[in-house]
Amino acid sequence: MREIILLKLGELVLKGGNRRSFEEKLMHNARRRLKPYGKFQVYTRQSTAYVEPQDESCDMDGAYLAMERLFGVVGIARAYACPKDLDAIVAGAREYLAPKLTAAGSFKVESKRSDKTFPMTSIQISQYVGGELQDAFPHLKVEMKRPELTVHVEVRDYAAFVHADPDPGAGGLPVGMGGRAVCLLSGGIDSPVAAWMMTKRGLGLEMVHFFSYPYTSEAAKEKVFDLTRKLVPWCGRLTVHVVPFTKIQEEMRRVVPEAYFTLVMRRFMMRIAEQVARRTGCECLITGESLGQVASQTTQAMACTGAVCTLPVFRPLIGMDKEEIIRIARKIDTFDTSILPYEDCCTVFTPRHPRTHPKLEEVEEAEKDLDVDALVAEATSAIERVYFSPEK
Ligand code: ATP
Ligand code: MG
Description:
Blueprint: E1 3-9, H1 16-34, E2 40-45, E3 48-53, H2 60-68, E4 73-82, H3 86-96, H4 98-103, E5 106-113, H5 122-136, E6 141-142, E7 149-155, E8 160-163, E9 167-171, E10 180-184, H6 190-200, E11 204-211, H7 218-235, E12 238-244, H8 246-255, H9 261-280, E13 284-286, H10 299-306, E14 313-314, H11 322-331, H12 335-338, H13 345-348, H14 360-366, H15 372-381, E15 384-388
Parallel strand pairs: 5-6, 5-7, 10-11, 10-13, 11-12, 13-14
Antiparallel strand pairs: 1-3, 1-4, 2-3, 4-8, 4-9, 7-8, 12-15
The structure holds adenosine-5'-triphosphate and magnesium ion.
Adenosine-5'-triphosphate (ATP) binds at residues 184-186, 188-191, 208-210, 269, 287-289, 293-294, 296, 344-346.
């Protein structure tokens, strides 16, 4: 018997077929993420997924870190698997949890018995194991309300498991359960957070980045790749579609009145992102816009940019303050990369006095001298795809 990882599954409101597809997606995602760490068996029983290493060479620390980033999991614990025998359970707990039992001042035992043929009730198991552990660690006080350590004993079908309090899991829904989306990824703080938030709600992502060489440098593109690498542990495999945007921006500079420049540019981004969505089987778009943050993120401006798409546009940061966004960026470790000082194509030709309350007719008028379809087709046909995988 050996150590395993237990994943407590979330979204308990899900019922019937949804519940099954939740579990299947979650297991599929878990198996893929575990690949770099050795051979594991993954299966679910009663709202718990079991991650069992198949041999001694498995990297349990790496696997644990990977599972902490698996959406759909609300709690995660390393557990000791032992035979379904009280003395084996006590011996297992005493040895496996020794460092924690030594460090804690107070404890309790909480038992669950899903194997109803086991000859003791949960309460009897807790009392017995608790008594034995107190004999072995006499400094420990039993504390039912707020113990420093809770020893969990689970008697299941094939084995018993002993573990300490679970760590919080990533929450959300398994990636892919909500369909697929194209995320517009700049090098800034906001869009990686938007990508993470929607992945958390079960969307599988394709990344689109607009690149205006030589106005934006190779280093700026590398920064977007670095951000993508940071997102892969949460999102799984990702493809970045790098769209050459220079010609569109130069054409715009030639014919579009300066005040409408950002709006027209953002409309191009949305059109091209939608094309990528159609080609890759995505059903919605995601941006990192937040209401009122910049001139192009007013209600009227977003109405003008959204007007070129037929797919729904999700803006998960719309009601968030910068501080709240930064808190998430730090948590997912994208912040330090995002603040590196490289230019974005949005900042290359910024109007001095952008229109903040534009009307759709004005914006359409501003772009009337552009051959929009041809520019979109040309940029789309020259997309470069770069692949990122947790298995690398
Ligand atoms: P961010 O921090 O994500 O760059 P921002 O506050 O700087 O956002 P804008 O530059 O106005 O805002 O961009 C708004 C949104 O448009 C971004 O969150 C992103 O989704 C998309 N976007 C902007 N620039 C690019 C780009 N070069 N490639 C892909 N998407 C982009
Ligand atoms: Mg930006």
